[in-house]
């Protein structure tokens, strides 16, 4: 009876029904509903319809890791042709293994849009290796996804000459990207590719050997088999048990071929993040030049390699910004009106200046060279030449090069021994800007210099701000409004949205992302060409303090730009409606990852800690107007798709003018993270954020909340327990069960010591965020911290 009952339960299980080895003729899939995919027997992989991020009604035909947190895509179907394009289908489409043994994908009208071009299959199967196959009656394979890779290869997969991998355009867009890994009989080559034509530029990395194939073998090594049957490794492989991890090797959107692993055991992690095992090329910023195209980064930007996390980033020079922040390969544009050739030399010198850059070079785009020449002469020649965008001077041979846009193959490196001078506009007054392209009709983004506010009354400030915000029928009441900076400090101007636009973008404010002291945050999607995902903060109170918070947030965030700060895209100030529009963070808040049943990997936690520290350093010391956040906590630290930490919610920020050092205000913040001075009659400084960071740093180290009343008596308050463990020389107790952290105890001890310095009751003893960042990054020594007085335990 028991076996019969067990069989019935298995039949009723949807997972068991889908995880069948043989998919029979007549079986079908549709994009919506329960019959969307077929699982492999182990449930590790799925084949079927996958909704495209940001577009719920459009689907890929794909294979993905079904047990990873993000259900990582390993393969996706493309159309046939010389340069196969991404295949996307809509609701109402249907994939069927028909009675003729052919797999056919049809759109909602019944038109066939894809098939593997084989017939006579007896059945199909989604294998545990991640390979989807069509199998004949004699058990021979008629078609398999392994022979038609997209951007990824899996364990046991073999590539032969003529096969290739094509990167995505960006992580969330599966269209053909700018990079190609191509296998030829004479070697393995990485090319940049012109989008959308598919033209291949010169290779930027290669292994020129006579090859038979490339294999991702069962030991976790990607190796090349030569035609004499010898093997050479393309990647270094992995350590540890292969059975404990999922594996993949992907040509990523940035042009790097990376091998990844992902722990299978939930007890070892909480974010279930992929970790990089090896990558090629070792430093893509040092890639070979391409005579055509922009190189690794977009035009007018340069590539910087971060050896700490083995990632490359593209950067715009000063007074330049990305044409598209998400699609950075499109390059950078000047945020000023370029020099007119009608200007005489005197006017050019009056309106433009040269910004010095070191360790950066754009090797191509020279159009004139001078030698011998002095550095001053080099600068003057560029400054008075309307074609010159950058001058390059080489001290050793007194040579000067002038370059014009677009600049290509830009890179930053210690081996660059030249000085660059980038031409930008001097700080402009409003009258000088009127004739520039920033004042086009379709973009009325008025930037008023801070000098206009000096000596102005509150009433005049309000009137000016009303004009700034695009003439909408609204006013903003401010008592301590910080001066707006010129556009070259702000970056891209903020957009004024109408309430109707945001109501439509959020589907009537339907999906709540979170709630805060001043309003509710909703998820939305703009009706632009990119379908940009956004987070909309709707302030539903109209008290004076809320009006003030709104004004402060708009001005504060609008003037900040840092990789560790959430970017404000725009606002709505229409009638009684007050809304802020932020970039959407795919991975939500740190809070939801940090305190779950599983555990973020130690290296990722360390990276997040450093990211938050750098964000606070920017707010405290690198802004022209110092910003104290006042409510640093895990809920206000958001994570993007790359798990980069970004500080959010400046609604409680208190702005200080540059000649001020402290301010008095009411208690702000969240219990458990507030500094002791909030409860005393003393001035509040940026050190309150340092204290809060110390609490978060300990939470990142230990993956637990600062206050856990259900814990043992000596562990209820994390700050006290951490101090006890440090004093006894047993910081290993804080990361018990975390194998990765235990292997890095020296770094764990360093981080704990930094946290204890941040938690000193006397704010004058706490380090600045600059010092904190240096200590975390091992750029400064960490002295033994004094015993911090326990304060949190006596809080009401």
UniProtKB/TrEMBL annotation:
GO biological process: response to other organism
Main subcellular location: membrane
Family matches, as Pfam families: B_lectin, Pkinase
SMART domains noted in UniProt: B_lectin (SM00108), S_TKc (SM00220)
UniProt EC number: 2.7.11.1
Domain Bulb-type lectin stretches: 14-147
InterPro entries reported in the protein's UniProt record: Bulb-type_lectin_dom, Bulb-type_lectin_dom_sf, G-type_lectin_kinases/EP1-like, Kinase-like_dom_sf, Prot_kinase_dom, Protein_kinase_ATP_BS, Ser/Thr_kinase_AS, SRK-like_kinase
Domain Protein kinase: 507-790
Transmembrane segments: 204-226, 445-470
Species whose genome carries this gene: Panicum virgatum
Family note: Belongs to the protein kinase superfamily. Ser/Thr protein kinase family.
Membrane protein topology class: Single-pass type I membrane protein
Location of the protein in the cell: Membrane
Signal peptide extent: 1-19
Catalytic activity, as annotated: L-seryl-[protein] + ATP = O-phospho-L-seryl-[protein] + ADP + H(+); L-threonyl-[protein] + ATP = O-phospho-L-threonyl-[protein] + ADP + H(+)
Binding site for ATP: 538
GO molecular function: ATP binding; carbohydrate binding; protein serine/threonine kinase activity
This protein's record includes keyword Translocase: no
Keywords: ATP-binding, Disulfide bond, EGF-like domain, Glycoprotein, Kinase, Lectin, Membrane, Nucleotide-binding, Receptor, Serine/threonine-protein kinase, Signal, Transferase, Transmembrane, Transmembrane helix
Protein name per its UniProtKB record: Receptor-like serine/threonine-protein kinase
Any Gene Ontology CC annotation: membrane
Annotated PROSITE patterns: BULB_LECTIN, PROTEIN_KINASE_ATP, PROTEIN_KINASE_DOM, PROTEIN_KINASE_ST
């Amino acid at each position: 009876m028991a076996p019969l009952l067990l069989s019935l339960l298995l039949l009723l299980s949807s997972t068991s029904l889908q995880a069948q080895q043989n998919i029979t003729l007549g079986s079908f899939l549709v994009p919506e509903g329960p019959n969307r995919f077929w699982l492999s027997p182990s449930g590790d992989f799925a084949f079927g319809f996958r909704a495209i991020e940001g577009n719920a009604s459009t689907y890929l035909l794909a294979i993905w890791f079904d047990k990873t947190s993000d259900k990582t895509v390993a393969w996706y179907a493309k159309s046939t042709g010389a340069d196969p394009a991404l295949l996307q289908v809509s609701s109402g489409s249907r994939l069927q293994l028909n009675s003729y043994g052919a797999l056919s994908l049809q759109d909602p009208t019944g038109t066939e849009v894809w098939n593997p071009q084989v017939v006579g299959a007896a059945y199909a199967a989604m294998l545990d290796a991640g390979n989807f196959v069509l199998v004949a009656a004699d058990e021979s394979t008629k078609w398999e996804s392994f022979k038609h890779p997209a951007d990824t290869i899996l364990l046991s997969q073999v590539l032969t000459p003529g096969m290739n991998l094509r990167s995505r355009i960006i992580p969330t867009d599966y269209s053909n990207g700018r990079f190609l890994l191509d296998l030829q009989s004479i070697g393995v080559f990485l090319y940049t590719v012109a989008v959308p034509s598919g033209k291949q530029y010169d290779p930027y990395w290669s292994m020129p050997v006579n090859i038979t194939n490339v294999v991702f073998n069962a030991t976790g090594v990607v190796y090349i088999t030569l035609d004499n049957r010898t093997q050479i490794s393309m990647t270094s492989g992995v350590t540890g048990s292969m059975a404990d991890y999922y594996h993949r090797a992907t040509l990523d959107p940035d042009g790097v071929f990376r091998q990844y692993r992902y722990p299978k055991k939930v007890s070892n992690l909480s974010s279930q993040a992929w970790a990089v095992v090896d990558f090629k090329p070792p430093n893509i910023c040092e890639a070979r030049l391409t005579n055509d195209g922009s190189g690794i980064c977009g035009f007018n930007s340069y590539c910087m390699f971060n050896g700490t996390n083995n990632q490359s980033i593209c950067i715009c020079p000063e007074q330049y910004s990305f044409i598209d922040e998400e699609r950075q390969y499109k390059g950078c544009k000047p945020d000023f009106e370029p020099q007119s050739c009608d200007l005489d030399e005197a006017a050019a010198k009056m309106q433009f200046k040269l910004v010095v850059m070191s360790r950066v070079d754009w090797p191509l785009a020279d159009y004139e060279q001078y030698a011998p020449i002095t550095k001053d002469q080099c600068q003057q020649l560029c400054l008075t030449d309307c074609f010159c965008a950058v001058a390059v001077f080489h001290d050793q041979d007194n040579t000067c090069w002038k370059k014009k846009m677009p600049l290509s193959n830009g890179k930053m490196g210690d081996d660059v021994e030249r000085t660059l001078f980038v031409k930008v506009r001097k700080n402009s007054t409003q009258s000088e800007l009127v004739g520039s392209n920033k004042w086009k009709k379709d973009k009325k983004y008025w930037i008023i210099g801070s000098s206009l506010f000096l000596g102005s009354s509150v009433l005049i400030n309000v009137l000016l701000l009303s004009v700034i915000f695009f003439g909408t029928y609204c006013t903003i009441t401010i008592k301590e409004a910080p001066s707006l900076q010129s556009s070259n400090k702000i970056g891209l101007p903020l957009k004024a949205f109408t309430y109707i636009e945001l109501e439509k973008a959020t589907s009537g404010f339907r999906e709540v992302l979170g709630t805060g002291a001043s309003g509710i945050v909703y998820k939305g999607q703009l009706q632009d060409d990119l379908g940009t995902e956004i987070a909309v903060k709707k302030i539903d109170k109209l008290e004076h303090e809320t009006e003030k918070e709104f004004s402060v947030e708009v001005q504060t965030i609008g003037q900040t730009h840092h990789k560790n700060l959430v970017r404000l895209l725009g606002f709505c100030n229409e009638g009684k409606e007050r809304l802020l529009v932020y970039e959407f963070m795919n991975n939500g808040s740190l809070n939801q990852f940090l305190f779950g049943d599983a555990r973020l990997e130690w290296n990722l936690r360390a990276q997040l800690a450093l990211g938050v520290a750098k964000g606070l350093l920017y707010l405290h010391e690198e802004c022209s107007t110092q910003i104290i956040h006042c409510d640093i906590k895990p809920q206000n630290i958001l994570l993007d798709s790359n798990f980069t930490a970004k500080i959010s919610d400046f609604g409680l920020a208190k702005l200080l003018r540059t000649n001020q050092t402290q301010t008095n205000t009411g208690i702000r913040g969240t219990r458990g993270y507030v500094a002791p001075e909030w409860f005393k009659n003393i001035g509040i400084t940026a050190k309150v954020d340092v204290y809060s960071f110390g609490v978060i740093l300990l939470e990142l180290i230990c993956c637990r909340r600062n206050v856990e009343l259900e814990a043992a008596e000596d562990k209820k308050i994390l700050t006290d327990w951490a101090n006890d463990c440090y004093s006894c020389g047993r910081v290993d107790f804080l990361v018990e069960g975390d194998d990765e952290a235990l292997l890095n105890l020296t770094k764990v001890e360093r981080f704990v010591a930094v946290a204890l310095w941040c938690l000193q009751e006397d704010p004058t003893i706490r380090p600045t965020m600059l010092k904190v960042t240096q200590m975390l990054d091992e750029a400064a020594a960490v002295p033994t911290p004094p015993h911090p007085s326990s304060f949190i335990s006596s809080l009401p």
